[in-house]
Structure formats: structure tokens, C-alpha cells
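re: ur question from the group chat, yeah i did fold both. here u go
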Amino acid sequence: MTTEEKNIILKANDLSIGYFNKKKPILISQNIHFSLAEGELVSVVGANGIGKSTLLRTLVGLQTQLNGSIELNRRSLKEYTIIQLASELSLVLTETPASQNLSVLELISLGRQPHTNWMGQLSEVDKKAIQYALEATNTESLAKRKCFELSDGQLQLVYIARALAQDTPLIILDEPTTHLDIYHRAYILKLLKDLAKETNKTILFSTHEIDLAIQLSDKMIVMAPSKTYFDEPCNLINHGRFDELFPKETISFDAKIGRFIVKS
């Protein structure tokens, strides 16, 4: 099934991103185009400072877009209220939670806030969503532990579980593998791949793990200095898009094996 035949969850057209300094727009990247369909795992890659986090923050409304349009479920992002957005997308950032004294179960339960009544009581539907999130991320054994007791890898799984419990069509994660060893980096990204397939949710994440992203992503957003590209990994490789990311005198991309090689 082609992207055109699937339901489009998130779409950007001629998008320009950046920030304002004394009301003056500072451009970081422009002419960004992509359409993300349901059930797809999509990665955002590029060098440090290229604008990956700025792009994600713009897509969820935390930063104002400088130009172009963003559509969430075929509706302009600007039309959504904060409460409405909480039912359409869930966000996993790298920041430490406000209270690490929360238990794992309490933190995951917060994902149900957009769906609970005014008293915050959990219904049977809420409890089932939380239980599914625990099972899907293999965090059941951590449920009673405090968040400050967890390793970085365990805490990242809990954040993903909270996003799953929120039960939105779109999940966006900013650098979900930061500070993790190579096993846990691969484990987290493989989990995201499996979740997109099993739940039919669209999952968008930024990462420095370009080699892993190439292997696991359905589509990739490649933010190069000259232009931002969007396509399937194999097409991006064939068109030499990864060659533009880093200075060639230090590191080069080997299209045959799909990996970066440090020059000796």
C-alpha cells in the first residue's frame, strides 16, 4: 500500500523552522516537505545543531513555524487547542520529569489525563490502556519502583509506556536513545519499530543513530546543510543524501553496507 493510499497523520508543506530573537525571525531550515502515514516509523537525522529538535518542537506546536503549513489528521495544527492536541499526539522529550518521586505506574498513568473525567479517576478503559502499555514495553516488573531508582534505559521505556497509555495516533520522541549503550539503543529503536507495526500508530523520532535508523525506519527525514530530504532509506542511499551530512575528510558514507566509515 502506498503512502497516498494510507491515512496521512502528519504533513508538512514548504515548512520553515527557527525561532524569534527580539521579534526577528532566525531561520534554521526551510523548504521542508513530508507526509507521514499511519503505522510508519520515521526518523529525523542530521548533524548536531542542524535543527532536529527545533523541527520536532515546531511539529507539536511548542515553537511557532516561520512559514508553510503543518497538518495533523488533515487539519491545520494552528486550529488545535492544547487539550485537543493531547488526544492526537504524545510527546517524549529528553527532560527529567518534574517529580522523580513518582512511581513508574503513577508516571505511566499520567498518560491517561486527556481521557479521564474532571476528578481524574481512572476508568476500566484507562486501566486497560495502562496495563497494555506496561506489557508492550516490558515494564510490568518496574511498576512499583520510583522513577529515581531506574537506569536511563529503564526510564526511557517508561516514557514510551506513558506515550502508549495516552493512546494517540501520533507519537513523537526527541533523541530517545540518548545516554544509552549500544544494546539499549538498538532495543529501544527495535521496540519503536514493533510498536508502529502492531498498533498502527505513526512514530516519529530524532536520533544520532543514523546506521540503526537506516535499518529500522520506514521513511527518513534527512536534514542536510543545503536541503532537507524525505524518502525511504534505500532511495536516500541511492541518491547519495547521506554524503552531505558530515565533512568528507573525516567520515564518509559507504552505500554498499549502509554505514558511515571513519577515514584513517
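okk and heres the other one u asked abt
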Amino acid sequence: MRYIFYGAGAIGGTLGARLFEAGREVVLIARGEHGRAIAAHGLRFGTPEGWRTLRIPVVAHPGELTLAPDDVVVLAMKSQDTEDALVTLAPLAPPEIAVVNAQNGVENERRTLRRFANVHGMCVFMAGVYLEPGVVHQHNPRHGAICDVGRVPHGTDRVDELLAADLEAAGVRSSAYENVMARKYGKLLTNLGNVVEAASGAGAYRSDLSERARAEAVAVYAAAGIRPERFPDNLRVAMHMGEVEGVERPGGSTFQSLARGAVTLEADDLNGEIVLLGRLHGIATPVNAMLQRLALRLITEKRPPGSIPIAELEAAV
């Protein structure tokens, strides 16, 4: 199988690099300065095992590729960019092509199912970092990150089994998982504090405000009949961090987007998902609604990461 990573940042760049090093056929789709840097100099990839430069094939647009039915396209852009990517991909790809959603949130799979039948979800627990063009680092040692994959809405097939086996061979913990969306709903609970961390710094991720956002989500899930699978304790042990020479992990995905000067954040697909479910099922979600507005404020006011005291956010609810 050929793996095409549509989006080559912290997740797509890391998974593509790991698979490429394991001898799998990989192509990256990367726009702008990031794509040009990879094309000119290779992907500079750092892990606890060291730094190396990988000459992974890269294109700026999927139209530069001839997509085949046995290709696997991994969507690794931010959730808010998925719709545009699918609009671009749909007329270029065979209808039976496998599309894997490796993003945060739970709406991307629904978006993808509107255009493709062979859809898979990937639940990603990985400490990847993308802050500068042409450079990605992963702060998990080999087999320190977990990326389970399964069909949507449920089940597994040959694509899941082969992808999981290839990821395992590449040093990423993975299994073909029967109910991957239950796991992704569980992962969403861990992402509800992302914008708090972006606004107030790493220590705010586990603040009381973040816990209140998660409590709202648990209540909403119960009203909606959603049974999330919490991140199991044995996987918490398996996912561990390591040092990458010369760099630190500054924060999670929303923190990194803000640090790069992104013009949108993923809160609409994270906190906004809880707000949506709350409105559909008559459950108040004031904390998540405030955090969704906070993401818009961070962008419109061009606030740097960590610039808003957590006490100010708590007072806003």
C-alpha cells in the first residue's frame, strides 16, 4: 500500500516519517513554506533516538498525484480544514479509495462519509510538534505513542490490519480496533482543555476550568446515549515521553497552532461538539461555549500562547 499523508505537520509528518523509515511507500501533501522546505531540503525529523533528514516525496496538491484504488489517504490536517481538503480530494480519488481520519474530534469521519464509502478513524495519542517549516519532532520514543485504527462506523478490515501492522513495525503502537469512534469520543474528553492551555499555558490544561468542561461533556454524552471509551490505564503507561535533543514540546495541538500564527483554531470541532450536543439534547454547556468563544478571541486579537491568566478565564464563566 502507498500511504499519502494529506497534511504533514505534527501528526502527518511524524507518522509519514516513521513509516518511511520502516521502508513503506509514503507521499506527503504539504502546502506553502512547509512543503517547499521539505521538497528542497527533506523533512528534518527529531525523536528521542536523534535527528535525521528524510527525503520523503512531497507534493503541494493532491492533483499532482495519480491516486489508485489501493492507496490509503490519511487526513492529518486540522479538523477545521477537513472540508476544504475533501472538496479537493473527492474529484481526484477513486470512489473506493481508503480514507483515514487521524484528526482530533469526531465530526471528520461524518464529513468524509458524505464523499467516500471506505472510511476509517484513527485515534491518535502522540506528542508531535510542528512549529517551523520543514521540521517536525516527536517526543515519544519508539512504541511510546498509540494510534489505533478501525472502520467507521464500526468494525475492521484488511486496511486497518495492514495499517496497524505497518505502524507497529515503524515503532508506533497500533491495533485494528472494532469500535474506534468510541475511543475517539473518549479522546475528545482529553482535548477539551486544549484552548485553555493555549490561552493560559501548559499548567492550565489540568485546571478546574478544563475539568468543568469535561464534566459538561460527560453529562452531554449521557443525554445523547454516547458511550465513550476512556483511555485505558495500561495505555497510559504505554504512552510515554522522551527528550528530543535541543527542543522542548511547547504544548498540544491548539497551543502549536496559535504559536504558528494560525488564522483558525480547532475549538469548533472540540468544545463546539459538546456545545452542539448540549443544544440538541437540552443540556447547558456554559464552560465549553465560553471556551469556544475564547478560541475566536485568541485569533481575532492575535494573542500569543499563554497570554491570558487562568483567573480571567474562570471569571468569564
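fwiw on the second one: The longest strand covers residues 119-125. The domain at 184-315 is CATH 1.10.1040.10 (N-(1-d-carboxylethyl)-l-norvaline Dehydrogenase; domain 2). idk if thats what u expected
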